[in-house]
């Protein structure tokens, strides 16, 4: 089983290299960002499993990064910061951080925090797998085990691609999924730049989901970014 994908957000090159070297030695997959703008782009494009976040970034304060990510994602965020005051820790945790590690830190402690977060992720995924074989959202029902979807109790006639898109959106309901993320997960990396084709498939899927005049909107378009399935 692949280890989680970790986004390392750190502008201090020596600290960033220490963290990434540690991750590499322990076979973690990782991405890096040296500022807030890049961090937000990487987080939205790749949906990392865990984010290691420095608060003192050159362009955007780390607290604002936490707030922005929490507006569309529940990805675990471990703060790694030189800010050691209790007020700083409380502010970060109150705004959505899951853990707080103060610099200077030991490599062993960082790895321990990652293991704890991994166990929590595994537990959540196992719980979701056990409970969420059927997805319900307003008039929409998806039976993942049977590979079928229903709208108002009637079977939906979906193409294989439409069904893949629907399942991906449903499993990430409430989250904005970028064009790149969707195409990589539905068609593979070779298809990731074909946003025009994605729009066509998404349009046909939405017509089937929202065929009735009074049907609630299931999928919301975020222009230039991607799509989100709304929770009804």
Automatic annotation (TrEMBL):
Keyword DNA-binding (UniProt): yes
InterPro entries on file: CheY-like_superfamily, OmpR/PhoB-type_DNA-bd, Sig_transdc_resp-reg_receiver, WalR-like, WH-like_DNA-bd_sf
CDD domains per UniProt: REC_OmpR_KdpE-like (cd17620), trans_reg_C (cd00383)
Domain of life: Bacteria
Ranges of residues in domain OmpR/PhoB-type: 132-231
SMART domains per UniProt: REC (SM00448), Trans_reg_C (SM00862)
Residue span(s) of domain Response regulatory: 5-118
PROSITE patterns (UniProt xref): OMPR_PHOB, RESPONSE_REGULATORY
Keyword DNA-binding: yes
Keywords: DNA-binding, Phosphoprotein, Transcription, Transcription regulation
Pfam family, one: Trans_reg_C
4-aspartylphosphate: modified positions: 54
DNA-binding residues (ranges): 132-231
Database matches in Gene3D superfamilies: 3.40.50.2300, Winged helix-like DNA-binding domain superfamily/Winged helix DNA-binding domain
PANTHER family per UniProt: KDP OPERON TRANSCRIPTIONAL REGULATORY PROTEIN KDPE, REGULATOR OF RPOS
General function of this protein: May play the central regulatory role in sporulation. It may be an element of the effector pathway responsible for the activation of sporulation genes in response to nutritional stress. Spo0A may act in concert with spo0H (a sigma factor) to control the expression of some genes that are critical to the sporulation process.
Protein name: Stage 0 sporulation protein A homolog
Organism: Ventrimonas faecis
């Amino acid at each position: 089983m692949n280890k989680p994908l970790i986004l390392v957000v750190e502008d201090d090159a020596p600290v960033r290299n220490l963290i990434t070297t540690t991750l590499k030695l322990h076979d973690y997959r990782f991405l890096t960002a040296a500022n807030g703008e890049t961090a937000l782009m990487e987080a939205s494009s790749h949906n990392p499993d865990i984010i290691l976040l420095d608060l003192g970034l050159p362009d955007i304060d780390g607290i604002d990064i936490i707030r922005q990510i929490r507006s569309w994602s529940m990805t675990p965020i471990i703060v790694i910061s030189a800010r050691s005051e209790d007020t700083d820790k409380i502010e970060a945790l109150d705004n959505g951080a899951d853990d707080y590690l103060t610099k200077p830190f030991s490599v062993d402690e960082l790895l321990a925090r990652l293991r704890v977060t991994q166990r929590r992720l595994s537990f959540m995924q196992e719980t979701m797998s056990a409970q969420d074989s059927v997805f319900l959202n307003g008039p929409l029902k998806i039976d993942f085990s049977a590979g079928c979807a229903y709208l108002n109790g009637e079977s939906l006639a979906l193409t294989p691609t439409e069904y893949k898109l629907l399942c991906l959106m449903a499993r990430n309901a409430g989250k904005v999924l970028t064009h790149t993320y969707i195409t990589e997960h539905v068609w593979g990396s070779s298809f990731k730049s074909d946003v025009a084709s994605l729009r066509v498939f998404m349009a046909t899927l939405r017509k089937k989901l929202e065929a009735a005049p009074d049907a609630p909107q299931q999928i919301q378009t975020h222009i230039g970014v991607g799509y989100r399935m709304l929770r009804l």
